[in-house]
Amino acid sequence: MQHIARAVAATRAEIEKALRGPAFSPSRPAKSWRIEGPFDSSYSLAAVNRETARALRRANWPVALFSAEGPGPYEPDLAYLKSHPDLLSLMQAADRLTETTADITSRNMFPPRCDDMRSRYNLLHGYAWEETGFPTAYRRDINAHLQGLLVTSPHVRRVFINAGIRVPITVVGNGVDHLKTRPARLPFALPKRKFRILHVSSCFPRKGTDVLLKAYAEAFAGDSKAEKEVCLIIKTHDNPHNTIAADVAALQADHPVLPPIVVETTDLSPAQLQRLYKKANLLVAPSRAEGFCLPIAEAVLAGTPVLTTGWSGQTIFRDNPMVKFIDYHFESAGSHLETSNSVWAEPSVSHLASLLRTARTSPALKWRKKRRAQRAMRKTHSWDNVALKSTQAIKSIANSTPKTPPRIGWVSTFNTRCGIATYSDHLLKGFPDVVTVLANESDEIIQTDTSTLRRCWVSGKQDPLDNLYTTITREDLEIIVVQFNYGFYNFAALGRLIRRLKADQRQVVLMMHSTDDTPHPPENWLSGIQQDLALCDRILVHSIHDLNRLKDLDLVDNAALFPHGVPETQQTPAAALTPERPFVLGTYGFLLPQKGYGALIDALALLRAEGRNVVLKMVNAEYPALVSAQLAETIRSQIVRLGLTAHVDFCTDFLEDAESYKRLSEADLLVFPYRPTTESASGAVRQALAVSRPIATTPLPIFEDVSGLTLPLPGFSAPEIAEGLGGIIDQMSRPDQDGAVAQSLRHAQNWRQANGYSQLSERLYAILSALHLA
Known about the structure:
Rossmann fold, six-stranded parallel β-sheet, globular
């Protein structure tokens, strides 16, 4: 069946290739290209569309422009077109080059509508995406309807691969040479200051103007000399997300002695904008995420140095001597897109303030250094270069040989009593192809191993992993997915395995369930294998804390957030709360000391001492380790000692998921009383999120990625847990649709839809396929 599946996949790829028509060849005339999207305004997407069309026409392509946005076509601004007659002629050409007669149709619009494209080759061109989250519906449409993506920066390409887009993705950049113009007089006067700081953006939250204002105050507030020498000019435009005027007023109220800040919304021509850049001493762009960041290129062309955040699309300018980077850490993205599990960079206010103070007193860049930077910018980022790379991408797509699905090896504990084994099983059930599981030797196998499972390594610190490597080689696996936990491998052996696999031209994806070195001896620190980890094609982690720890190790470009999943199960409605029946608390997960179950039982005793009719249902399987068995006996003794035998149902059996969910559904409130731990994420809390019950957790980083889905307890001690649970029980006894309990249930429902294992399996398989195609 596996061979048949691969044959069908290869046949389908060949058929799709044939339907696209014959490949490009020098003897055939140039193909026709239809560009769809806005092109009749100063909007950045409009500039990309019209300049791409002009560059393709200079390269002798028959080109047409068609005016459209995400919702559909619209009538362009005729006054704008009359002042740009070449665009009018390109628009008129769209009557002849329709979607069915043009060989290529490419779009740049938002949202990225592509399910109605009908040309032989259908693309998105000049496309930018900033934060790391990407909507599932967009991904599915792109994979189903497009033959390729032409994107603005390596960052965008990484984001799309991490989102699971498996069509060819080519970095074509953006052009900046349309900005080469003679500066024109500004329609407003600038403050007369020796050091002018400029910011140009929409002032969306993503643009980091709040960071800029805080750093500006930290650098110069209270400095009477700076008040006379420094000013900040913010060039923006009105939009629903722009609150800069109010933000500036609030800052000035808090800091009476502050250099002036000017907010200017007047629309400027490219020539006037060039004048503004030239009049500035420094451009500051503390963006949280960018796809390219055109103002940086504009400033460099004008000879103005730049400070910008050291992450996302603007790192394409990393080698430009006029661009310096602000330090940052990762945070959950707070954009208006509200994409699930999305991350962006939070620039450091203190570092930016320090850079501002340094820039104020630093000598100006030497003329020759500026000239080199400007020449490099014009050469690398020209529209003709964009057109050339776009044409080459089309030829590559047309001449590509279809690839069969990747042969995947999955290194993990498997078919044992282990949370990572369960996690692996959930993900692999959704894969559309057979995966070779490379499991550890174990005496605790739950059921008979399948024919595609190979037990070829030993968990712990002694195995050199030679047998694992030999098995991978013998099976000729192309992508190796390694489930990482600190206790699984000898670090030196793991690093050597990664090096050997990469030397064999195999791809390595490391899924890390923990990244905190602090509880471990130095020989088990990630820093010791940093160079090996840098070789991995991807390092997938479960939390933003993990991303920041990897950033501290200079592991950024190959790291990505991949959330823990939640099983999809039938929801059982909660029983009505009545005075006649007890309130049922529930808890779930392996029986281990760091889980805090002893404190929960003490809290139950305190609640009952208050006169609350509360009982506890514990679904806590013994882990195959002596410490777990000892804890079970301790808890049984504790229950008896506290007189709670009739009020605690303590189950330590390893249950099937369906039985666990049935028992958890009998609870009114689920509790996770964990003590401080180095784990990055809790698989148990996600299992519990599968049933729609309120969940209370202790205040730990391990639960931060489900913040808003759960209810925080005030602490870890029994009195604190009892206090928190009492408050939640009181809330639940008087239902409030806007209360914390109701809100957590609503958020959890949305989270379940976005993070079900079937969704994550689909995405992970798409990521692996995309890496295989790259």
